[in-house]
Amino acid sequence: MAAKGAYPSFSSRLAFIIAAAGSAVGLGNVWGFTYVAGANGGGGFVLIYLVALAFVAGPAFMAEMLIGRMGKASPPTALGKLQSRAGSKLNWPTVGWIGLIGTLMVLSFYAVIAGQAMYYGLVALEGGFAGWGEEAVTALDADFKADPVSMAIWSAVFMAFTASIVSFDISKGIERAGKVMMPLLFLMLIGLVVYAGQIGDWGRAASFLFGFHEINFSSRLFLEAVGQAFFTLGVGVGGLMTYGSYMGDDVRLPRATFWIVAMDLFVALAAGMAIFPLVFASGVEPTAGPGLVFLTLPNIFSAIPGGAFVAFVFFLLLTFAAVTSSISLLAPTVQRLAEANIRRPVAACLMAGVAVLLSLLTVYSFAGGREVYPLASFGLDGMTAFDLIREGVSNFILPLSGFAYCLIIGWSLSREDVRTALPMAEGRLFTLWYMVVRVIAPLAIAALFIGAVIG
Ligand code: PHE
């Protein structure tokens, strides 16, 4: 145990890897990936997503953790230290502050969706869904969304849970939560995939996700796929930078990155292979959008053997995935406040409270404000506050921060500094990653935005 006042750290390499994988594996893998892939036609989207993971988001992911390791502080402070080290005149902490705002934006909708998942888990625990029929399932979703107060309460329950974990010291809170929840999550997921294989249409699901379909290449498809790659790894808001600042010097970062990205990808694809076989076997469309998990799936649960149990396992899995990510979203602001001598429990409650307040925007978008488009006069017609927050953060803040991280590591800090912070990396691997971070990833992100503007 570190002496009081010392900078916090994870107690082992494995603890760091589990926590970072917990941050990566989240609602984005199960709720997000399946609905975005479903809505964008499957295979082609998945292909672009894989390329984006390998050449843009993955290398940026390692850059973010490395910045944390080199700066050993909350994101704005760490970036400030590195700025003085590089002697740059640009204001690097701004990138950190934008990230902190990003954490609150993600939490604001995360809490609402995770809150609904918890509520559905409870309904399933009481034997719900089994044999319900379509009307009852639709009514459950509609009633939940018609009641902003209970939505807000469930969001608050979720954030309270998150805050209680982050309140503890790193090794007792964040670390332990990952060690308990992540293995259970994997077990439940594998169980669901096997079950879906038994009763669902595996062949069609596999061909939908991995088969080659006609791809309608558009700048929007690229933006969605790259945005999803950043979101799923959790790059760009400083959560990983904060976890990186807690990692021990013995962590082999390239290897850790490989395993975390692999786990994240595995969970997204496995979630697809748990969900789409059931979707296809029931003859419904995979394009339901955000409602895939809360409408299409529960409908299926109501018709299959052991529906209540399967539903319970599914929503518990979704909750665990959400918690291990939301703690990484609360950690950066709490670390920043701790630097101002505010105790962790106080900081955690405070920031969770802010997240709950912001979550009211999403609550409103789902409840009364479904037809309210705040930025319609700016050409963003048809987008609710929730759509704006979700797309704003995953398609803009995350890739742009990732862009900044890449430039910082690739151009502003000296190559020797970066090399020294990665002592265990093999020479050739380092050269490859360094080139990607310097050239390929920034160019790809720049091209993406130019394409989005002119396309
Ligand atoms: N990676 C998480 C997910 O897939 C979301 C997240 C975003 C976590 C940003 C941390 C930072 O759901």
Can you describe what's shown?
This protein has 455 residues and is an all-alpha fold. It has a single domain, classed as Hydantoin permease. It has helices spanning 13-24, 27-39, 43-71, 75-86, 93-125, 134-146, 148-167, 174-199, 202-210, 219-233, 239-245, 253-281, 296-301, 307-339, 344-366, 385-412, 415-421, 427-454. The longest helix has 33 residues, at 93-125. The structure holds phenylalanine. The site of phenylalanine has 15 residues, from helix 1, helix 2, helix 10 and helix 14.
The gist of it:
The protein is an all-alpha fold and 455 residues long.
List keywords for this structure.
single chain, 455 residues, 18 helices
Count the domains.
1
Unreliable residue stretches: none
CATH topology heading? Hydantoin permease
The run of helices and strands is: HHHHHHHHHHHHHHHHHH
Strand content: under 5%
N- to C-terminal separation?
A: 54 Å
- Helical residue percent band: over 70%
**Tally of helical segments:** 18
Shape: globular
The total of beta strands comes to 0
Overall pLDDT confidence: 92
**Rg calculated over all Cα atoms:** 21 Å
Assigned CATH architecture:
Orthogonal Bundle
Structural class: mainly alpha
CATH class membership: Mainly Alpha
Major β-sheet, in short? none
Bound molecules: phenylalanine
